[in-house]
């Protein structure tokens, strides 16, 4: 189990339950009590912010003692990683190693980006073809637009789910239905007017189903 250190939210001032020092930039929790890094014997560690995967991995591997830094995201109601605390010599060695092979890693990133882009192009084309198979009367331009939108890497949309990647019929239908809901009904306007999401969906559902039924009928 990882050792966890908390970075408090900016508006929350924390003080150590043992030495009373504060406000604290980082702290741990022991039996639900806030403990500063000095009292937790972690003050010799330095903060490595998240963002550089190679540097993080190398610093963690080189450090005999390290801790994960987390901060609570109040909106998402969860803790999210903010980096690591590692030993200063370990961080120095990791930085030197990253500088030594920076060119090679940059070339690899370029190759990986090109590979991902080619994969995305192939998948978007396959998704567009599957939309037209399920909805043969759908305009090809709409099928292409839906496929491009729902398959965008990192979007979290239906096309990026496991079912979407497998071209599952339910997932593909859900993606097309979502596009129709947003583009062919007053759904977005209802949301802006304060109508609850479920109520807005129910109100436009007949229109969405009518469009899908029309598109399912071969031309």
UniProtKB/TrEMBL annotation:
Top-level taxon of origin: Bacteria
Q: Name one Pfam family in it.
A: DUF2293
Under InterPro entries, the record lists: DUF2293
Domain (DUF2293): give its ranges. Answer: 131-216
PANTHER family named in the record: DUF2293 DOMAIN-CONTAINING PROTEIN (PTHR38113:SF2), PTHR38113
* Annotated protein name in UniProt: DUF2293 domain-containing protein
Which organism is the protein's source? Streptomyces albidochromogenes
């Amino acid at each position: 189990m990882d050792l966890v250190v908390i970075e408090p939210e900016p508006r929350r001032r924390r003080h150590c339950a043992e030495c009373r020092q504060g406000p604290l930039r980082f702290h741990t929790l022991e039996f639900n009590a806030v403990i500063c890094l000095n009292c937790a014997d972690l003050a010799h560690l330095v903060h490595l912010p998240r963002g550089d995967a190679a540097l993080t991995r190398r610093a963690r591997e080189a450090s005999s003692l390290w801790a994960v830094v987390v901060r609570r995201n109040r909106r998402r109601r969860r803790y999210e990683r903010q980096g690591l605390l590692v030993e200063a010599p370990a961080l120095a060695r990791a930085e030197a190693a990253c500088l030594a092979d920076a060119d090679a890693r940059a070339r690899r990133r370029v190759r990986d980006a090109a590979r991902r882009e080619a994969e995305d192009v192939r998948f978007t084309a396959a998704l567009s073809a599957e939309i037209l198979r399920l909805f043969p009367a759908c305009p090809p331009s709409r099928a292409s637009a839906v496929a491009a939108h729902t398959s965008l890497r990192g979007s979290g949309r239906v096309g990026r789910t496991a079912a979407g990647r497998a071209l599952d019929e339910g997932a593909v239908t859900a993606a097309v239905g979502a596009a129709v809901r947003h583009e062919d009904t007053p759904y977005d306007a209802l949301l802006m007017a304060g109508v609850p999401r479920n109520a807005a969906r129910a109100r436009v559902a007949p229109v969405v189903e009518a469009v899908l039924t029309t598109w399912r009928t071969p031309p």
